[in-house]
Amino acid sequence: MDTHTLSPRRRFYDKGLRALLYFCGILTCVLLVLIIGYIFYRGIPHISWELLSTQSSYINDTIGILPNILNTLYIILLSMVIVLPLGVGAAIYLTEYAANRKLVAVIEFATETLTGIPSIIFGLVGMLFFIQMLGLKTGVLAGGLTLVVMILPTIVRTTQESLKTVPDSYREGALALGAGKWHMVRTVVLPNAVDGIVTGCILAVGRIVGESAALLYTAGFGLVLNDFFTSLESSSATLTVALYVYASERGETAIAFAIATILMLLTLVINLAASLVGRKLKKN
User: Fold this and answer.
1) What are the backbone dihedrals phi and psi of residue 220, each rounded to the nearest 5 degrees, phi first?
2) Counting Cβ atoms within 10 Å, is residue 171 exposed (0-12), middle (13-18) or buried (19+)?
3) DSSP annotation of 284
4) Residues 225-245 as b or e (16 or more Cβ within 10 Å = b)
5) How wide is the angle at C-alpha 70 spanned by C-alphas 64 and 76, nearest 5°?
6) Which of 43, 215, 231, 249 has its CA 20 to 30 A from that of 109?
């Protein structure tokens, strides 16, 4: 409808709402820039090669976060290798194969409920189940499995919604040409849903990188440099846990801001890499 045909009161109301939306959008961007800028301002001056390439030592009175960077990468790799096949496979089954719609509705409700549970609850459950019941030691393995349970609903729901956006005519056309069910899903549905799958991966990685509460109980506080296999069952603090330790227990605010800066840069690099991979897969 042309705004010139509206009454003056309605035009004023429309302009007011538009101005309010613009204000909220600009305010959100400004707050984001201020937060990122403040963290970079406080953190970048304290980032050094010694900080990035060494481990903390009480004897030499040095602080290094190389073990924490590696532990973060270890736990991202382990969690995503496990959760991606499970989450994407579950979403494909629920969307393309499941015939009992009531069961699908129950599972969707359960996944939506799980996404809203506080992460500290996952940490407690992970400690009780993986460490006390299964006998795993505190480390990357227990922490990674806990994060798998925590981010699985996110992967399932985002993949489901992405699969649902693929038009049914694509499926019907592939089946009419003689393609089998799995061949149709693999060559027609998944390539057209890759954007949503990549989005789910980015959200999952972002939650892994920023998680600390669940890992306090399962991955531990260890600041010692270990290889991947040793860290699986050795106390291994990620960057977020190290930030908590340095900020609250050791009073190293400058180091905490440096770690926060590295976390933001790491998240940015991972998100850009995931976006590039998604574009490449869609193009292929």
Assistant:
1) 95, -175
2) middle
3) -
4) bbeeeebbebbbbbbbbbbbb
5) 140
6) 215
Nearest to 54 by CA among 224, 219, 212, 269: 224
Cα separation, 270 vs 207, in Å, equals 12
Q: How far apart are CA 58 and CA 60, in angstroms?
A: 6
* Residue 141 CA to its chain's centroid (Å): 18
Q: Note the pLDDT of residue 220.
A: 86
Task: Report the half-sphere exposure of 87 (CA within 13 A, side-chain side).
Answer: 29
- Contact in structure between 109 and 94 (CB atoms under 8 Å): no
**Contact in structure between 42 and 252 (CB atoms under 8 Å):** no
Neighbouring residues of 216: CB distance < 8 A, sequence distance ≥ 6: 123, 241, 244
Q: What is the pLDDT of residue 11?
A: 79
Residues of the chain with pLDDT under 50: 1-2
Q: What is the pLDDT of residue 1?
A: 47
* Strand-pair category, 62-65 with 55-57: antiparallel
What is the per-residue pLDDT across 159-199, written as a single tens digit (0 to 9) for each? Answer: 988 888 888 888 888 888 887 888 888 888 888 888 888 88
- The answer to whether residues 140 and 78 touch, using CB atoms and an 8 Å cutoff, is yes
pTM tops 0.90, yes or no = no
pLDDT value of position 151: 92
